[in-house]
């Protein structure tokens, strides 16, 4: 009897296994490859830059000297005196209206000895061995004869590079010198030593690596720009973000003060300087505007992205002062928008087109999009937006205007904004979502039922905010990236409504951050892509030209069995690209049938991004904990059999005829 029962149990177990695997084998997906639903905008996946987390000065901008023109609130911040064997002193002089954008300079007095200033850089200076570095200084000779010695030293004070300057003029003159380093330093310092007897006036003390992006003198940090270029973004939104608004209107971002000669750009305090308490406060966080609107346009052109500038609409940050410009005093703000279009697109014979040409770019930048306000809300915003719209539509109807739906993805402010914008000329409405990973999974169908005839959506700032630990990069977990991937299948599936999308924020220095998670982390010498970065890259590098449907049992797959799907046809490359997210903790198998097309090869490729640990993350020391792996797959007829690993993003590419 026991043997019989045992055989029955064994048979039932085997039958269950057969039924289980048969059920797995019966999971089928159909991709309607010959029935494009909607075009995918070339701007679909882009990047959003804001000068937060030392993303510009100390980051993307390759300048190594902090407070190079003595314009911080404390003019000697970042500098310390070096006294050797004698007397010397530094006097900060403010020349006021003589040079209002850069009024301060330092008068260095030396008394028969060596006296100097040492600059600490941005959490130190990252120096690479055997590389050329370019030093420059604006100087005017006073009494006596002064020579200048320039030294780079490492954290222990050892000299790793040096040069010198002499024969200064009695007029303000830029002097330059270059040298090659003998060692690497993560936290180097620059020493500027003055020798002789007398005094000399100095300003704009600067040090750049020779190797910048495209080797432009005094340009951008090459490795950080390369991370952006590798994303192949369709657009770049700049310069923010909350710095567009400022804590008060006086501190707002004004693009006209960021163009022209570097020494004539007016530095201001970065609003993230005072936004958070210790340890995230940053009293040394200012904006030199070495990256200004010209450099942003140039960067967009370099990486093949549409420029999307955002302008202040006469409102300061509503989370801070919330002050607004009176409606009868809004004209200067509107004029800034009109002048920006002229700067970007105008002929060289126009006032602002000539400024662009004089900076080295006579050809227009072909600006097509313009954002009015960053993250504003309520009646005061809509009233001001409409004033911009009236003027811009009349004079530049070719420009697509971007309005704000406020800081939240739902609620009374959000609903009010959308109600008002549906009767406007806004081409895109900027929606922001900083939410939990669970929210992103739940909202993968958010745009399935949006109005197809209303303004289009710009998913301008989003990031899943989940678990973290004490490690700086730990907020960027695989679970948060996986949630974003699931949500992005919904954005792609609704590409007729969603025309732009960008993760935020973009950059963060590991020792100088105010906000996390962030897409790309860096220190003075290294950079690392987060799991979220590789999700963005897999979508942006596989954008396609037209949306096609992925169906299971005739229905869209958006959360059933924790699977999320979208697909595109790329008419340019002749490929079908299928994106599948398995958010479950177990593997899942599918048979995928491509309907209406013939496959060009008997193999497909699949890129898989996954981790067995939902809360794993990449760090500067372990950069590929979560990293895409590419493999080939077999094809049988028009079918592909695929096994999706647990907690994975899978991108399948098939060549078609």
TrEMBL record:
Belongs to the glycosyl hydrolase 51 family. One of its GO terms (molecular function) is alpha-L-arabinofuranosidase activity. Pfam families: Alpha-L-AF_C (PF06964), ASD1_dom (PF22848), CBM_4_9 (PF02018). It catalyses: Hydrolysis of terminal non-reducing alpha-L-arabinofuranoside residues in alpha-L-arabinosides. InterPro entries: Alpha-L-AF_C, ASD1_cat, CenC_carb-bd, Galactose-bd-like_sf, GH, Glyco_hydro_b, Glycosyl_Hydrolase_51. It comes from Paraflavisolibacter caeni. This is non-reducing end alpha-L-arabinofuranosidase. Its EC number is 3.2.1.55. Keywords: Glycoprotein, Hydrolase, Signal. GO terms for biological process: L-arabinose metabolic process.
